[in-house]
Amino acid sequence: MAGKYYDELNVGMTIQHSLGRTVTETDNVLFNSLTMNTQPLHLNADFASKTQYGRPIVNGILTLGIVVGITVGDLTEGTIIANLGYEQIKHPRPVFYGDTIYVETEVLEKRESKSKPDQGIVKMRHIGKNQHNEVVCEVERIALFFKRKA
User: Fold this and answer.
1) Is the dihedral of CA 125, 82, 118, 19 positive or negative?
2) Can you tell me the mean pLDDT for 62-75?
């Protein structure tokens, strides 16, 4: 698997994910439709043109999902049991149609599972940036990882 095991992650380690994702209007409209979010700031160009942004902004939960998704191939693909939580979610800047999101991850904490000797818990910070290197999303994520088999 491409993901990292608990044993391969160290506190302070930083991973620059090479994958980037350009967000389209179709992505945003589909996501808002699937999640039944009718917020006009995301879907109504006329409404959004009268806001401080002057145009529609991408749904923040879609942005969060893309940020976490970009990390999967390098970090968790096939090596986690579950995501245990998301904390400290911040959206310091909006994402617009055509923006490309890139992500870096820092390992913040780790500890062995008390009940499962073949597993460990890792807390990570994902930082999503647009093509201008501006932070658009930050999140702390806690996940239960497999340990590498001896």
Assistant:
1) negative
2) 96
